[in-house]
Fold this sequence. Notes:
Shape: elongated
Protein name: nicotinate-nucleotide diphosphorylase (carboxylating)
GO molecular function, one term: nicotinate-nucleotide diphosphorylase (carboxylating) activity
Keywords: Glycosyltransferase, Pyridine nucleotide biosynthesis, Transferase
Helix content: 40-55%
Strand content: 15-25%
CATH class of the largest domain: Alpha Beta
Pathway: Cofactor biosynthesis; NAD(+) biosynthesis; nicotinate D-ribonucleotide from quinolinate: step 1/1
Strand order of the largest sheet: 6-11-10-9-8-7
CATH architecture of the largest domain: Alpha-Beta Barrel
Distance between the termini: 31 Å
Radius of gyration: 23 Å
Structural class: alpha/beta
Family: Belongs to the NadC/ModD family.
CATH topology of the largest domain: TIM Barrel
Order of helices and strands: HHEEHEEEHEHEHHEHEHEHEHE
Amino acid sequence: MALDEDLGSVNRRDVTTQATISPSVRGTADLVAREDGTVAGLSAVRETLTQVCEIFDLAPVQVEHLVVDGERVRAGQVLAHLTGPVQALLVAERTMLNIASRASGVATAARAWTDVLDTVVRPDGSRARVLDTRKTTPGLRALDKYAVRCGGGTNKRMGLYDVAMIKDNHVVAAGSVAAAVASVRERFPEVAVQVEADTQAQAVEAVEAGADFLLLDNMDDDALRATVEAVRALEASRGRVELEATGNLSLERAASVAATGVDYMSVGALTHSAPILDLALDLRA
């Protein structure tokens, strides 16, 4: 789909490259990081080149990766050597850079959160983890969530189909938290049930209604700490409940939130606001 945006879905051509470079001309290009970060999406390089070569009936491009997804890189570092028809290198350039730069930007953002959370070890030895959300680029959710994992983060639900998440509008429509939870259990007994809570009282209500996972929304550190303690006190009779802080989170606040005892922090900005990691393709003279 990305190649069709560049080449046109009907003609599939690069009028500049095809007019100026013979299909027989071969060369080598380096994939280079222009800034520090964590890389992800490198498989897009090989896949894009493979598809371009198929479209234009060109000889294959050899790809030598020098790093792997999830690796930290420095500005100026060469990530891969690409050798083959120059037409293929130039036609594929923007598509593969767009995908890999996007994924690497998400991975870099996730790594920043992971680095902070790794410094906060609670008395029981646990650490909070950063979660992504569904605030992903349409059509690129699998890539975005993969990139979060490359940065050390954890995936939350993939979509509306795999986990039930009862939020305020669902509660209004169902009549109560208990009614909403009961309806999900009856209709889709195999899925985990998550419930959003704005207060300690709502969190306790959700646990008593049978929630497996709570989203503690827009609470300050004191409210989070008190809610965590209240929920943990109920676990002896009903089992473990996973707790996530969400809303009004920042890297500056991450350590103090982690210290409250929550299991996770969900950060939509990982995928909806992460800047790309600047990657470039340098053709050797």
